[in-house]
Amino acid sequence: MKRRLIAAIGIAGMVVSIAACGSDSKDDGGSGSGADAKELTVWLTVDAQNNWPELVKAADAAVQKKHPGIKIKHEYYGWPDKNTKLDAVLATDKAPDVVEMGNTEMLGYMVKGAFAPVDPAQFDNSSAWLDGLKASVTYEGKTYGVPYYAGGRVANWRKDVAASVGVKTPPKTYAELTSALDKIQKKEGDKFNAWYQPTRDWYAAMSFVYDAGGSIAKEDGGQWKANLSSPESVKGLKDFKNVVDKYMHGDKTKDESDRYIVYGQGKSAMIFGAAWEGATAADPKNDKTGKLKDNLENFVMPGPSGKNLPVFLGGSDLAVPVKSKAQAVAAEWINAFTGPEGQKGLMGKGNLPNNKTDLATLKDDPATAVPATAAESNWFVPMAPGWGQVEKAQVLQTMLQNIGTGKKTVEAAAKEADAEIDKVINTK
After folding, report:
1. Tens digit of pLDDT for each residue in 192-248?
2. pLDDT digit string (tens) for 410-419?
3. How far apart are CA 261 and CA 182, in angstroms?
4. InterPro entries from the entry (predicted)?
């Protein structure tokens, strides 16, 4: 699966000009718009085409049963080129009726008015949508999309390395984790990464911030203000810095994009990242040790607070472009695709569901218990109009590099980042 590509993609492809008045959509989710449509165009990524085409066919069949004779056209795109093509078509009258978006891509399009509002009550399990996914489709009190599926983050370590210092089971608390890592670091020496944690990995760093009760930014009276220099956020950043200082002995100017490759080289005992990274490191193409296949183990990442570390919840959403001429039928197709049977099929393919009800069922299966449990505590980026500019400027990455390399103190780096964020976060 190429779903991993979205993990590093920020809010991209901002729509320059969207004529919202070009549609007769209504705030009720388009229930009066396009109910008698004869055609429906659905844009999905190649993940659906390659990994669960039967779920697409099932959604088609459900809609065609209700609307005999309707023609449903599918187009599939890779993540790198999808938004460029979407931006181009949204400026015309040829907009698709359903489009898949990475959840971090939604905000820029909602701000620009590209998507029609939908009524959550029309969609199964909407009252139980995962918090991070629900946040990704919500802007200024309205809902502009439907969560499709999720992907979380977990800790992964080498059982053989842990066993070499007498640790036979994964840690349940942060104290147990750091105790084990201290032993590993002492045994393996300073050229080894007891925990390979790239400094610029803001997804991991912000998990520590939220664990400490902090946040990237807060909304007050419709205005957003950066919050990284608050006492709580500073504590979280210091917790993250301690990890980098004690256990990360690699290049402290790197991001997480090649973490699974570095992990596969055998110079690390543990990583904290997307659930697929451990298995990918153990792939014979990446495993330079020949030992990883039977020695890697996922576990829920404990946090310094005593609770599970909140994780960034990635995933996909489905939205209806405001220029769609078939908004009502589009909503029906989305519900058929993301409803109970669709979620069951997606879980069967190794994905996390879009809702807490289905997520709870995965906790009973040893094969899925770790990612399901980890995803219960999650966070998402500030849904502020200028957040895309914050990501584009790499404010968080710069702050973390300054902290990790010792160029600036945590307090100074956080204060500087807050100032940069405040310049743009409320700008549409």
Report:
1. 999 999 999 999 999 999 999 999 999 998 899 999 999 999 999 999 999 999 999
2. 999 999 999 9
3. 24
4. SBP
3 state DSSP class of 426:
coil
Pick the closest to residue 348 from 335, 361, 331 (CA basis): 361
- Helix/strand/coil for 152: coil
Strands 296-299 and 153-158: antiparallel
Q: Start-end ranges of CATH 3.40.190.10 in the chain? A: 3-152+313-379, 153-311+384-424
pLDDT value for 23: 37
Give, to the nearest 10 degrees, the angle between helix 174-188 and helix 231-247. 30
Band the pLDDT of 24: cuts 50, 70, 90: very low
Give me the mean pLDDT over the 265-285 stretch: 95
The residues, any chain, with a CB within 8 Å of residue 158's CB and separated by 6 or more, are: 268, 269, 270, 291, 292, 295, 296, 297
Domain 3-152+313-379 annotated CATH 3.40.190.10: yes
Tokens standing for residue 149: 């599926």
Give me the mean pLDDT over the 254-260 stretch: 95
DSSP per-residue string spanning 398-420: HHHHHHHTTSS-HHHHHHHHHHH
Residue (of 267, 264, 255) closest to 198 by Cα position: 255
Long-range pairs of 86-89 with CB within 8 A, sequence gap ≥ 24: 86/13, 86/43, 87/13, 87/14, 87/15, 87/16
pTM above 0.90, yes or no: no
Residues making up the chain, counted from first to last? 428
Would you identify the CATH topology of the domain 153-311+384-424?
Answer: D-Maltodextrin-Binding Protein; domain 2 (3.40.190)
pLDDT of residue 80: 84
**How far is Cα 292 from Cα 265, in angstroms, rounded to an integer?**
10
Q: Which DSSP state fits 82?
A: H
pLDDT score of 41 = 98
